[in-house]
Design brief:
Blueprint: E1 2-3, E2 6-19, E3 22-33, E4 37-41, H1 48-56, E5 63-68, H2 78-81, E6 84-87, H3 99-107, H4 116-122, H5 138-150, E7 156-160, H6 168-183, E8 187-192, H7 195-201, E9 204-209, E10 212-217, H8 219-226, E11 230-235, E12 241-246, H9 249-260, E13 268-270, H10 274-282
Parallel strand pairs: 4-8, 4-9, 6-7, 7-8
Antiparallel strand pairs: 1-2, 2-3, 2-5, 9-10, 11-12, 11-13
Helix pairs in contact: 3-4
Length: 290
């Protein structure tokens, strides 16, 4: 399938899923282009993980049309499943096996796996190849999870909250890995609630709230579309800090320049961040995201 001239790896129309009286996914439309990194953002309970489970074929949908790599996940063959890799939040490999043993073992599940040694190198675990899994750090275990997700040579990789619990240094190391996979031609769907992560990795993203997509596009475009006001801040002559949100920051600064007769003490002009847009569209406060 194509949309606006792009071949789609994932094409979803009118996706719906309910659990009893709770609607988890409420009419989602989604198109992910081949070769791109696409972010699915939203608070807990927004429907992100359910959507990913449906795309992988692990959960039935109630309504809607879904095409993943040209097939319906609900009737996906073994050959189709070998083309889709996934890394869940709570992956767990046998603790007593070594990294090398584990990757080689999982390679046996696929008809045309990647070379295990190449994959171990790709995720940066060469130095730990003969270490038992139970001896790995949290970040190293997550790298192993990704190795198991890509050992089959997938065309599409689904990453569900992959850096939850990482410290900042480990998170940035993981980002380098995702960029390497993307450079290798893998289409990646990333669910996350880390806005900085989305800005660092994705080409396009969709923000999900209460089972619906409330915005979709490139991060910079969304900031421009939904973040219409800038914040102008300055310091009054008596030392009092002031700030004003305005859609015409240049006019505000000009007015302040005339009032101060020249230089404006403590002047800053800040544009809305992706986080500001996210909070506005999902109806969350800053405190709720921490």
């Amino acid at each position: 399938m194509t949309a606006q001239g792009y071949e789609l790896a994932v094409d979803v129309r009118g996706l719906r899923k309910r659990y009893g009286g709770v609607t988890a996914v409420d009419g989602i439309d989604l198109g992910i282009r081949r070769g791109e990194v696409f972010g699915l953002l939203g608070p807990n309970g927004a429907g992100k993980s359910t959507t990913v489970e449906i795309l992988q074929g692990n959960r039935d949908r109630d309504a809607g049309e879904v095409s993943v790599l040209g097939s319906d996940p609900a009737t996906g063959t073994r050959a189709w499943r070998s083309r889709v890799g996934i890394v869940w939040q709570d992956e767990s490999a046998p603790a007593e096996l070594t990294v090398r043993e584990t990757v080689r073992h999982f390679a046996g599940y696929y008809p045309r796996p990647r070379d295990p040694e190449e994959v171990i190198a790709l995720v940066g675990l060469e130095a730990k190849a003969d270490s038992r899994i139970k001896a790995l750090s949290g970040g190293q275990r997550r790298r192993l999870d990704v190795a198991l997700g890509v050992i089959g040579g997938p065309d599409l990789l689904l990453l569900d909250e992959p850096t939850t619990g990482f410290d900042p240094a480990a998170r940035r190391q993981f980002w380098s890995l995702i960029r390497a996979l993307a450079d290798d031609g893998t289409t990646i769907l990333l669910t996350t609630h880390y806005l900085e992560e989305a800005e660092a990795l994705v080409h396009r993203l969709a923000i999900v709230a209460k089972g619906r997509i409330v915005a979709e596009g490139e991060p910079g475009v969304l900031r421009e579309r939904f973040g219409t006001e800038a914040t102008v801040a300055w310091t009054e002559p008596d030392g009092t800090p002031r700030a004003e949100r305005t859609g015409t920051p240049a006019r505000t600064v000009t007015g302040l320049t005339h009032r101060f007769g020249g230089e404006i003490p403590g002047l800053t002009v800040s544009r809305p961040t992706l986080e500001d847009v996210y909070l506005r569209l999902t109806g969350q406060s800053q405190e709720e995201t921490r």
